[in-house]
Amino acid sequence: MQQNPPICGGNCCCFQCVRQQEVAVVENLGEFKELLDPGLHCILWPLQCVVGRLSLRLQQLNVTCETKTKDNVFIQVAVAVQYRVILEGAYNAWYRLTDPRGQIQSYVFDVVRSTIPKMELDEAFASKDDIAKAVLTSLQRVMQEYGYEIRATLVTDLMPDSKVKASMNEINASRRLKEAASHKAEAEKTRQVKAAEAEAEARYLSGLGVARQRKAIIEGLQASVAEFTEEVDGTSASDVMSILLLTQYLDTLSAVGANSIFLEHDPATVANLQATIGEHFLKTASNSK
């Protein structure tokens, strides 16, 4: 709103030009006469004069208010109020309100300082739209009486102290690190469980392989003993087993010799080994009886 001193002096004061999106207030000897629309007008000067002009364009008022949240954190709340003069209410806007911007600012302070203290800091950040609606509702109800239309109110920023910001960032960082550690531990647990399951499965399959191998060896030995006793007359199963033990013993010596390990050898070793195995079998049979 433009409140200019009475324009009654100078040359050609009988003709007044009003710009687009403006209205001019005309008084007749100090009494309101009329509102002039955009264009060229002729007034009865010096009896009449233009005492001021009102802009009908949309205007914005930026208000910054300091208040405290429910958890005792002081923050700066930035509110942008968009308003304009209503053409039909231009008389009230000029004569009933001296400082519209100061009036709007006072109501913004009142609403913000009565709304934010009911919220905690995180809730205040999440409720910016609710705060803006509360300010808009309050201003619309009051300012319409004075010829002003409140088009929109925006909470453009909530600014806590820099130390509070740093603390909030540290809290978020700590929470994310905790979540990352939890996921990493869960992944390590899964890896170890899978590794243990794989090792158990490998040992199970290895045991099956060893069992099958031993079964095949036993079946082969049985077949070899049966064929040898059938082919060679006068031989017994004991003789065949002695020959097989000797063969296995020589194979063992060959494998050990391949690794350059020196062992004491006695030709009677095979006989002693056979006697030991026989005694063990006899002892086991007697214990089972």
Q: What topology emerges from the helices and strands here?
A:
Blueprint: E1 15-18, E2 22-28, E3 31-36, E4 39-42, E5 48-55, E6 59-68, E7 74-85, H1 90-95, H2 100-115, H3 121-126, H4 128-143, E8 148-160, H5 162-231, H6 237-257, H7 269-288
Antiparallel strand pairs: 1-4, 2-3, 2-5, 6-7, 7-8
Helix pairs in contact: 2-4, 5-6, 6-7
What can you see in these coordinates?
The chain is an alpha+beta fold and 289 residues long. 54% of the residues lie in helices and 22% in strands. It is built from 7 helices and 8 strands, in the order E-E-E-E-E-E-E-H-H-H-H-E-H-H-H. It has a 3-stranded antiparallel β-sheet with strand order 3-2-5. A 3-stranded antiparallel β-sheet has the order 6-7-8. Strand 2 and strand 3 (31-36) form a beta hairpin. The N and C termini lie far apart (121 Å). The model is unreliable at 2-11 (pLDDT under 50).
Average of per-residue pLDDT values:
79
Question: What's the overall geometry?
Answer: rod-shaped
The beta-strand count equals 8
Distance between the amino and carboxyl termini: 121 Å
Key traits:
289 residues; alpha+beta; three-stranded antiparallel β-sheet; 7 helices; 8 strands; rod-shaped; disordered N terminus
What's this, in brief?
The protein is α+β, with helices and mostly antiparallel strands. It contains 7 helices and 8 strands.
